[in-house]
Amino acid sequence: MTQINLKQRFIPTISSKSIVQDNFEELFNKITNEQIKVGTVVKGKVVEIDDEVVIVDIKLKNEGRIPLSEFKLASDVPIPQIGDLVDVYVEKIEGRNGCTVLSREKALREEAWSVLEEAQKNGSLVDGVIFGKVKGGFTVDLSGVVAFLPGSQVDVRRPIKNITPLMNIVQPFQILKMDKKLGNIVVSRRAVLEEARAGIRQEVLSKIHVGMILNGVVKSIVYYGAFIELTGSDELTFDVKVDGLLHSINILWRKINHPGEELQIGQQVRVVVIGIDISTGQISLGMKQLSANPWDDIENSLQIGDIKVGKVKSIAEYGAFIEVTKDLEGLCHSGHLGWEKINQNPKKSLTIGQEVVFKILDIDKERHRISLSLKLCKPNPWEVLAEKYQVGTVIRAPLRNITNFGMFVALSVTTNAVKYEIDGKEYEIGEMTYQIDGMIHESDILKHGDTNSNSLKNYTKGDEIECMVLAVDVEKERINLGIKQLADYKR
């Protein structure tokens, strides 16, 4: 943008002894009452000055009084002295108190307006000075013309906490809006800064390339990733803020539910540029790309049958995802959570962040899947039951359920605690008690030839009954019991 200095454009340096001043004197002497009209800018002579008012003679019956503050608007022009000629705007020939009403500010505004309009049209910058505070923003002196600077247009950082260092210094502004009828001008300092930063940003972007490793700070976190404020590389420091997007899939090699699990606002990070959109200036970043893909040599780090410990990262209806390594996680299906016969609800038996011991069941390198088991790290209650209730053992137990084909007896078995040493640390799974159903088939209740066809109706749920262990199948997790076999046993 072109920058225009309005003070050089229309405000002459005042010198009471200069040729210019002498010419003004000559012009002033030629002014007649007929030439002076309301709404025009005329030459006037300063005849008196006090602490608050400048009295100006424009060759009318009465002199005009102008607040001294209006002569301070053009900040780089000295206050006029008695005898100096100045441009003034005629508001009224004769006011209520009999004085002529004049304005220095409106004279400057009239002179400057066309130049300011041209600057706005061309997108040129204009010099100004922030000199006061008003509701919603600040006042700016544009070489004697007062403009409004909204608070939101002061800086690229909103809101700016302390504007004092920016006041009373000449700096460029962009004109946003002008209304000559209302006499309003709205300017922006922020637009100037953004344009300057955009130029510097383009220069910085030209130095960034795919594969470049950069340092940055986590600026904000959203559900799909994090925005990183890039500060430069080990060899290069950026002069302007440049942001890049670190998508959630590029944070770790393993899946994460939310970027906030791994990142915090203000955290210092090291990232690599994985993509640049030249048309938009958008930069795509990666963190996981700074380390090797763990799937490439997973056979060297994990083996089927390995027992590991990790935290529960997420829970679904069908199972739980567990951290295997920093960059890998596996799925423990609900059927492998424990030895209970019915598939457990993972949300009832596990919590996010819980540390668990697991066994690796399978590794699918091609599909990037690891299957885990929690139950295989616990003692098998069926093995304990087979040892406790050997074939031929007579037991007494409560009747838990009766069906049309037989009865189920409630058996109780407790497994011992087990300890594992993993990565130099000891982990213990405590003793557990299981309720296991033993089945008595209808054919094993009465001996062949017995006449009571309603044998099942002879029993009631909760009855304590005596029966014999007929068979235990650890693999199929079954135990068969019988009552009629007791007759031969007792004999």
Question: How would you concisely characterize the structure shown here?
Answer:
This protein has helices at residues 6-10, 19-30, 104-122, 190-205, 298-301, 346-349, 381-388, 485-490; strands at 3-4, 41-49, 53-57, 64-67, 85-92, 101-103, 125-134, 137-142, 145-150, 170-179, 184-188, 213-222, 225-232, 237-247, 268-277, 282-286, 307-316, 319-325, 328-333, 355-364, 369-373, 394-402, 406-415, 418-422, 425-429, 432-441, 464-473, 478-482.
Give a topology summary.
Blueprint: E1 3-4, H1 6-10, H2 19-30, E2 41-49, E3 53-57, E4 64-67, E5 85-92, E6 101-103, H3 104-122, E7 125-134, E8 137-142, E9 145-150, E10 170-179, E11 184-188, H4 190-205, E12 213-222, E13 225-232, E14 237-247, E15 268-277, E16 282-286, H5 298-301, E17 307-316, E18 319-325, E19 328-333, H6 346-349, E20 355-364, E21 369-373, H7 381-388, E22 394-402, E23 406-415, E24 418-422, E25 425-429, E26 432-441, E27 464-473, E28 478-482, H8 485-490
Parallel strand pairs: 1-7, 14-16, 19-21, 26-28
Antiparallel strand pairs: 2-3, 2-5, 3-4, 5-6, 7-8, 7-10, 8-9, 10-11, 12-13, 12-15, 13-14, 15-16, 17-18, 17-20, 18-19, 20-21, 22-23, 22-27, 23-26, 24-25, 27-28
